[in-house]
Amino acid sequence: MALFFFLIFAFSTGPGLLESPPKVRLVRGPHRCEGRVEVERNGEWGTVCDDGWNLKDVEVVCRELGCGAAKGTPSGNLYKPLADEKQKIFIQDVNCNGTEDELIECDRVEDVFDCSHSEDAGAICEKSPPKVRLVRGPHRCEGRVEVERNGEWGTVCDNGWNMKDVEVVCRELGCGAAKGTPSRNLYKPLADEKQKIFIQDVNCNGTEDELIECDRVEDVFDCSHSEDAGAICERTVRLVDGPGRCKGRLEVKHQKQWGTVCKAGWNLSAAKVVCRQLGCGKATLIKRCCNKDTQGQGLIWLSNVSCSGQEEDLQHCLSGLEGYNNCTHDEDTWVECEDPFKLRLVNGDTSCSGRLEVLHKGIWGSVCDDGWAKKEEQVVCQQLGCGKPIFVPAKARKKFVPGNGRIWLDDVHCKGEEQSLEQCQHRSWGYHDCNHKEDVVVFCLEGQPDI
Ligand SMILES: *[C@@H]1O[C@H](CO)[C@@H](O)[C@H](O)[C@H]1NC(C)=O
Ligand SMILES: *[C@@H]1O[C@H](CO)[C@@H](O)[C@H](O)[C@H]1NC(C)=O
Ligand SMILES: *[C@@H]1O[C@H](CO)[C@@H](O)[C@H](O)[C@H]1NC(C)=O
Ligand SMILES: *[C@@H]1O[C@H](CO)[C@@H](O)[C@H](O)[C@H]1NC(C)=O
Ligand SMILES: *[C@@H]1O[C@H](CO)[C@@H](O)[C@H](O)[C@H]1NC(C)=O
Questions:
Q1: With pLDDT > 70 as the criterion, what percentage of the chain qualifies?
Q2: In a domain, 117, yes or no
Q3: Which of 25, 297, 308, 345 has the fewest CB atoms within 10 Å around its CB?
């Protein structure tokens, strides 16, 4: 009997058991701290009518969700898809004084009769900055995992690292679905020996919002940086039909489908967000897009995009109704960013033929032809905006070699569909068993020299 009472006591005082789950949530926003407001009643989630909805009401929502300061009171129209017609609207005329801990403590009217889902209330709260980041990958949603502790960034040992753990990382970063659990040396350069490894045996159940909520071991003793965990999350923006991965027609992924973006309202701040998200360099504003060959087809997902330029992700910018606009593909958006991976063809008659050089650590160097073939040439020509490679007899290539200086890359292997030579496999920078007679020479169709 004593044991029985002890158990009841232990259970009823255990952490979490006395706390009921939040009675409010934000849906369809970029992260759990922004979106359309929903409140729960008898196990059912309904919306809030935005009559009288103001920043004090949002303050309470943000507090209740542990999301920091209130930043905005958007109307639910912004968060798509809109609520289903059948979903109920539970409350209106919400009037918080701003000090309440929960929305249900605020004055409100529970009989909603003259409100539609286009008036659903929304909330934007300040979210604490992510405590996890991905480094050395091709964009901010792929790379080696780093976590922060007391202002210092450390890595994660890959024992037990799996797709559920990556799901949580992708969610925390607002990066879309988990795609892969790469580890072991994929992202170069490797972490510096002095950088600490903070956690191991991470074991998320996959539903957590942040990696620090997952089970893990904080004493790491038998792990090296060659076992650092990595994550690949789904990309939600891409630039297509242009030269390289940093220039092209903008496409966004929504509801599992890629679609274009209408350029109405597009400006340099929006282009900056896209370039940053892709891990590309500086943005330039391009007004013209596209001709018949480069314009998109199919869905036009966004129009009237409005970014301040500080957003981490295009999803965090305001935009016109998804899929509802009067745009045509003549108005597709084209984005050009600087490609941080630079290559050039030298000594040819045009910039589309010659000896291949790549820039690394500020120095131009050549590429060795071991394993070099048609697919690798395709990637180079495409990346330079020079069309397709053309076959040229070995004799014609000779006049371009030998080069001099550094030999940066060797054993390059591409699949042919890469948007940048950077995405192909190769030996570590500067490691080779070549001499300059083996320098790669490339001829592309556009700007073909007379031979
Ligand atoms: C705000 O509302 C709460 C809940 O109704 C109440 O307890 C509190 O005294 C109010 N504070 C002010 C400053 O009006
Ligand atoms: C997953 O873990 C979180 C945080 O520890 C916990 O709140 C949640 O109940 C767990 N879910 C499942 C399905 O185990
Ligand atoms: C574009 O957005 C602005 C504010 O961001 C808004 O005032 C305007 O009505 C929108 N235009 C269209 C066609 O949606
Ligand atoms: C782009 O437009 C947004 C609003 O639509 C504005 O906040 C921003 O300052 C603009 N940026 C530039 C560079 O004009
Ligand atoms: C599209 O065009 C129609 C007819 O000109 C107009 O009524 C409607 O408001 C437009 N829609 C948008 C989103 O601009």
A1: 92
A2: yes
A3: 297
C-alpha of 366 from chain center: 32
Threshold 0.90, pTM exceeds: no
Ligand 3 centroid distance, CA of 262 (Å): 13
Confidence of residue 95 (pLDDT cuts 50, 70, 90): very high
Final residue belonging to a domain, choices 186, 209, 233: 233
3-state secondary structure of 13: helix
Residue that finishes a domain, picked among 64, 91, 125: 125
- Asked if the model's pLDDT at residue 380 lies above 90, the reply is yes
Among 132, 144, 142, smallest CA distance to 423 is for: 142
Q: To 5 degrees, how large is the angle CA 328–CA 329–CA 332?
A: 110
Structure tokens belonging to residue 151: 């202002």
- CATH code of 438's domain: 3.10.250.10
CA distances from 140 to 134, 173, 312, 340, 359 (A): 6, 9, 9, 14, 22
Question: Which of 80, 303, 304, 324 for mutating ligand 3's site (highest number of atoms within 8 Å of CB)?
Answer: 304
Beta carbon of 328 within 6 Å of any ligand 5 atom = no
Per-residue pLDDT reduced to its tens digit, 225-284: 999 999 999 888 999 988 888 999 999 988 778 999 999 889 999 999 999 888 888 998
Q: Is residue 2 part of a domain?
A: no
